[in-house]
Amino acid sequence: MGILVEVNRHEEGGLEYLEIVVEPYPYPISYRGQYHYRSGSTKQELRGPALSAFLLQKQGKRWDGVPVPGVKAHDLSAEAFTLFRQRAAKSGRVDEQVLDDCNEALLDNLNLVDGDYLKRAAVLLFHSTPEKFITGAYVKIGFFAADDDLRYQDEVHGPLLVQVERTLDLLQTKYTKAQVRYEGASRLEEPPFPAAALREALLNALAHKDYSGGTPVQISVYEDQLQLWNEGHLPDSWTVENLLRKHPSKPFNPDVANTLFRAGYIESWGRGTIKMLNECRAAHLPAPQFYFEASGFVVAFAEYSATYWHQRGVRADLIPVLLYATQHSIITNALVQQQLGVSKSTATRYLGELEKGGYLQKIGTRGAGTEYRLIGS
């Protein structure tokens, strides 16, 4: 069983007895071919993906480092290799000599080879149909008018490196609508969500996904929000709070993450979530939400809208004030009177309630020069 116990012989009331002391063990215990662990006051058997992950960990391996028999470098996608070389040359994170070498040597340099076999990471990143070997290795996108009203959808297949570009292109050209504004004679299009933030969220979903579950990355797009879901979990002892500040990089799939880093897609310092927060703040959008749902991790982006404020419990007659502050950066008592057609005292009350509720910040002290800015914008 691989455990050590302490056996003590005692005597009490003329009777002898043995005391067996078993210290807590930080890992599951094998007994008759089964692995057991304690959860609270009950004993549980380790099964399925959790058992596979545990056995790999005992061998010092990760899921994406397992070798795949029957696949050679010449079976992989030329398009994926070309894309990687272009991006890696631009990032400067791979020596030119390595990029000029053959595909076999490039894979070996990226640590995607184990003996005579390619690793799962190599198949996932470079094979034209990775789903032949890895179930659910694709991205699913859907546009919803409501949670139960799917209007249209797409699936993005192919090498992981190519999935990144195709998914981002679909999101920007088909699933989200850019706002048009003009600066002089120049026509400018502003996407509803920062492209850099969406890219970070997508790359995080693909790099940190638990591929053993067999479920694709799912992106749900609504009129004023966008959610990315991937199967997986945070590192042990981490909470969502860790993601909101500087944290070490602990990729779930280190070989996949290393290749994405060499290609310039991601950083290696755990700054992706912070970048999402900063990009949304710069675009005057709510901070993205990070949470767990249905055995997976969700990143949710939203626009400031009537629905957004209603979901946060803001009273209906106060929502127009916040929407104006969103669109124009600031709002004043006079503007509330003008836009809502209310008296000065009512406008004062509205602004006071929103300031007290933590939605608006007062700039200035009193009088006509007092302005209010949306907190977080």
TrEMBL record:
<dbReference type="GO" id="GO:0006355">
    <property type="term" value="P:regulation of DNA-templated transcription"/>
</dbReference>
<dbReference type="GO" id="GO:0004386">
    <property type="term" value="F:helicase activity"/>
</dbReference>
<keyword id="KW-0547">Nucleotide-binding</keyword>
<protein>
    <submittedName>
        <fullName>ATP-dependent DNA helicase RecG</fullName>
    </submittedName>
</protein>
<dbReference type="Pfam" id="PF09339">
    <property type="entry name" value="HTH_IclR"/>
</dbReference>
<dbReference type="InterPro" id="IPR005471">
    <property type="entry name" value="Tscrpt_reg_IclR_N"/>
</dbReference>
<dbReference type="GO" id="GO:0003677">
    <property type="term" value="F:DNA binding"/>
</dbReference>
<dbReference type="InterPro" id="IPR036390">
    <property type="entry name" value="WH_DNA-bd_sf"/>
</dbReference>
<feature type="domain" description="HTH iclR-type">
    <location>
        <begin position="332"/>
        <end position="362"/>
    </location>
</feature>
<keyword id="KW-0378">Hydrolase</keyword>
<dbReference type="InterPro" id="IPR038475">
    <property type="entry name" value="RecG_C_sf"/>
</dbReference>
<dbReference type="Pfam" id="PF13749">
    <property type="entry name" value="HATPase_c_4"/>
</dbReference>
<keyword id="KW-0347">Helicase</keyword>
<keyword id="KW-0067">ATP-binding</keyword>
<dbReference type="InterPro" id="IPR036388">
    <property type="entry name" value="WH-like_DNA-bd_sf"/>
</dbReference>
